[in-house]
Amino acid sequence: MVSFSVKPRPSVAKINQARPADHAAHGARGFMRIILENSAIHADEVLLVAWFFVIGAVIGSFLNVVAYRLPKRMSLIEPSSHCPGCKKRIRWRDNVPIISWFLLKGRCRDCGSAISVRYPLVEAITAGMFALLTVAEFTFRGINLPGREIYKNDGIILFAQNSLHQYGILLYHLLLLCTLFAAAIIEIDRQRAPWRLFVPALFVGIVAPLVWPHLRSMPAWALLPDFVSRIADVAGGLAAGGLLGYIGWRIGKTESPGGLSWGLLSAGVFLGWQAVCALALIMMLLTWMAMAFCKLKKNAKPWPAAVWLYAAALMLILAWSLLGDLTTSLVQ
User: Cα–Cα–Cα angle for 64, 52, 136, nearest 5°?
Assistant: First the structure.
């Protein structure tokens, strides 16, 4: 049962310092300990998660528009939303994300044409993604992320980040994931995700960390001067993401780069060279599992790689610190 409280929200999350012999398992235990310590969710945090769920549903509705219009070079603003069958403008009350589709029983109010279930599904997935990341990166103080600035005091490790940092990181990651999700939707329709889709994300991914380096959870190289580190972060992410994207393009043997190539480049810019390399491995594993499933189900059609890139990016961000600790323990 979730309990509500109006007590002041703690400024930091605490983990008892592990003994040296337990260092390899510290990350996983610390992750669970923080979840238990924060089980009494504050009322303002519940409202924040609900608010981000609603915002996510609205963004999901916009992603449906982007996925339909952008490959056709149509304006994202005009004309307003309308029924593909009768071309009549959709009323505002019939355009409420997720809810309206069920109220209309999946059909146009005017002509009765069927409305694809994909519309509310995309809205629901986006809303869930927004809520899930809000819980991980705000409610639990970004415990899913590595490389937090820490200091030690009387055997306790305190995560030194404030609410502004948490909001910034949350919005930063949501922009990347929304872009990758839009590319996945486009390529599910057997179309190629255009490079124009990735321009806003690439611009923010390159410029924002130069101004606010805290957006990057892991530096490209340690012990570099501040400004040099910012440049190195961008250069390392661009190089690794671009190389992996180029390899994906050549393996795919397509005329021009698509969602996979541009997505890997964007992920490298946002997450860094270490993360995009791990991301590529996770994506390859998911793709292999999907191909094995399709062989068992003869009529099943494999989804494009952009879908698994989005799934891998979401998995990596949500379990970033845990995966890093597991990797460290295997190496040791």
Answer: 110
Contacts of residue 257, Cβ cutoff 8 Å, sequence gap at least 6: 195, 245, 246, 249
Q: Which residues pair with 107 in a beta bridge?
A: 114
Phi-psi region of 40 (alpha: psi -120 to 50; beta: other; left: phi over 0): beta
Q: What pLDDT, on the 0 to 100 scale, is given for residue 257?
A: 78
Mind listing the pLDDT tens digit for each residue in 179-202? Answer: 999 999 999 988 999 999 999 999
Asked if omega into 79 is within 30° of 0 (cis), the reply is yes
**Edge-first strand listing for the sheet containing 150-153:** 14-16, 156-159, 150-153
Residues of the chain scoring pLDDT < 70: 1-41, 147-162, 253, 255-256, 324-332
**d(C-alpha 93, C-alpha 100), whole Å:** 7
Residue 10 pLDDT: 42
Distance CA 201, CA 176 (A): 6
Cα dist from 62 to 67, 181, 203, 204, 249, whole Å: 9, 12, 20, 19, 28
